[in-house]
Amino acid sequence: MMKEKRSSATNSYKSWLSFKSHLTDASEHKSSERANATVSPVKSTVFSTSSRFLDDDEYERPTAEEENILRRVSGKVPWVAYTIAFVELCERFSFFGTAAVFVNYIQQPLPEGSTTGADGSGQPGALNMGQQAATGLTTFNTFWCYVTPLVGAWIGDEFLGRLKTIQLSIVFAFLGHIILIISALPSVITHPQGALGCFSVGLVIFGIGVGGFKSNISPLIAEQYKETRPYVRTLAKTGERVIIDPGQTISRIFMYFYCMINVGALVGSISMVYAERYVGFWLAFLIPTLMFGFCPLVLYVCRNKYSVTPPTGSVLGKACKLWWLALRKKWSWNPRTLVRNCRSRAFWEDTKPSKIDHRPEWMTFDDLWVDEVRRVVKACVIFLWYPLYWLTYSQMTNNLTSQAATMQLHGAPNDIILNLNPLALIIFIPIMDHLVYPGLRRMGIKFTPLKRIYTGFILASLSMVAATVTQHYIYKTSPCGDHPSACKEPAPINVWVQAVPYILVAISEILASITGYEYAYTKAPKNMKSLVQSLFLFMNAISSAIQQGLTALSTDPLLVWNYGFVAILAFIGGNLFYISHRNLDKEEDELNNIQASCFVGDTRKKDEESQAVLDYEYDTGSYRHAGFDSETESIELGNRRVRH
User: Fold this and answer.
1) CA 405 → CA 278, 399, 484, 485, 589, distances in Å?
2) Whole-number Å distance between alpha carbons of 19 and 333
3) What pLDDT, in 10s, does the model give residues 81-127?
4) Phi, psi at 379, each rounded to 5°
5) Transmembrane ranges (predicted)?
């Protein structure tokens, strides 16, 4: 892929040389001046111009009037994206299939006479550590699996590239799977202390693999779609002129990516619940491991078909230094003034390379990259509200599973009810994509990303209200009063009333979670996409840390307070989120249409083709793409490069 990009840059450079020979004498004189002013800024800096060489004549760009009146539709999703979606399906089958039995494995006792944890007519179990321990360990697992993506993204963006990082992560995940299988073998599971130690080690290693995989797989599938700017097409069937919107295409990619996640989760969870019940936990851990084996196979077969962004060196460090430089320029000890300064456009404008006479050595990027960093910071501020949303989701994986065990199951395993969530997602994602969203657009209603996220928060809050009401009636009707978990007789309430919170959470995920993936990808610079995705995922880890603090409420008779408190947090968080960021809706198109920077990053090797790209940028008027208002500014920057 790198060779192709270099070839593209070199060919464009040759084309430019041919064109340059036909310039007037005056133009040749100016070109000579610019060539004399152009030097390599820093030995390791590489700029990409592949996006600049795209022939705009190939596409009809919409006019300002057309942008307001023409319908926006999704473009065609590349076929290779579906192979990545299948890989994600297999990985999520292995993850959710394994995690689906964690609560019973930790909380419930080993059935009498069983050496596998299976109990076809009763409750499967193994370690007998109780609900609080089960909630604590499953919450730690969630926390760990969403902390490790930060490291995985850093390695993927800066060192190995996304595909190689995913392949390395698969090795760790396989090792974790194998250790979990060992913890459930009959010779181990009958010794709870040894089984717990083995299980804990498996969780840690498994989480390392999950983190490296998850932070890089979603940017990998999205970057298979190349177009970044909207264009006009006439539909062959109807003759209607429409705008092919890259934003909606990316949104569709992530919706079906999320759908495949939940297909894997649904099949994995249901099948493993019955495996634990009728055979044992060892089989519930083995089958997901075998399914996971398809991941490296598909990635290897399709490795030459994928469009892969190469690693770019230390870009995160430059972004942090840029932010610190901007903050120092606008610092005030008055908090109100500081917030106002940070929100002003000048906060970033004054740190652009073209505005600084004496640039620090690390400032090897162009003005447009500053705009991209500004955009991604706005996105990351939005992500800070997500921990309050994920609190509602985390209730499904522990407390709601335990709640189901206190209700009338009518022969269904208590941990199978959880699968209402992925089932609802599989049903509602196509409905939202083909009916709801297009219908709103035809009605002229702009259901922007921020409005979708806000609606998701509110639905998540309502789901916890439903769980609170259910728990109240369990306490009211249980033969054991407000201690139903210790009661052999269930409360006379059908377990399927849990469908309400599970389905509401599912719809909220379509609005808040999928939109978050989309927002993280579209707002990130090309050389920071894995990192920004990992920051979005990291909000799950923060939520898990908060949930760990609420573990004291995850026991009878305090569960009503647990669900009610989470509902209040999600409701308040959603409203504060929208109040704080509602003005960003007006900037949505502007942020999405920021011209991509030619700055790629730093590498250890610089060659003549990289220099050719730089010469091309400065000698052809591409100074405008680099954020300069005139050729003079471009030449002045070249002179400053000589001085520095």
Assistant:
1) 17, 10, 9, 8, 48
2) 55
3) 999 999 999 999 999 999 989 989 999 899 988 899 898 777 899 99
4) -65, -45
5) 168-188, 194-213, 253-275, 281-302, 376-396, 416-432, 453-475, 495-514, 535-554, 560-579
CA end-to-end distance (rounded Å), the chain: 33
Question: Rounded CA gap, 201 and 177, in Å?
Answer: 11
CA distance 138 to 106: 9
The strand pair at 407-408 and 491-494 is best described as: parallel
Can you tell me the distance from the alpha carbon of 242 to that of 69, in angstroms, rounded to the nearest whole number?
9
- Going by C-alpha positions, the residue among 521, 642, 527, 591 that lies closest to residue 48 is 527
pLDDT tens digits along 164-205: 999 999 999 999 999 999 999 999 999 999 999 999 999 999
What are the structural domains of the chain? Answer: 69-308+376-592 (1.20.1250.20), 316-363 (no CATH)
Distance CA 445, CA 452 (A): 12
Burial of 191 (0-12, 13-18, 19+ CB in 10 A): exposed
Tens of pLDDT, residue by residue over 515-531, are 999 888 888 888 888 88
**Of 214, 266, 294, the residue nearest 100 (C-alpha):** 266
The CA–CA distances, whole Å, from 192 to 31, 197, 497, 519 equal: 77, 9, 34, 44
H/E/C letters for each residue in 278-341? HCCHHHHHHHHHHHHCHHHHHHHHCCCCCCCCCCCCCHHHHHHHHHHHHHHHCCCCCHHHHHHH
Q: Is 63 in a helix, a strand, or coil? A: coil
List all residues 6 or more positions away from 81 whose beta carbon is below 8 Å from its beta carbon. Answer: 221, 224, 225, 253
pTM across the whole model? 0.75
User: Quick one: angle between helices 449-477 and 514-522, nearest 10?
Assistant: 150
Residue 407 in 3-state DSSP?
A: strand
- The two beta strands, 599-602 and 407-408, are unpaired
H-helix or E-strand containing 131?
helix 130-155
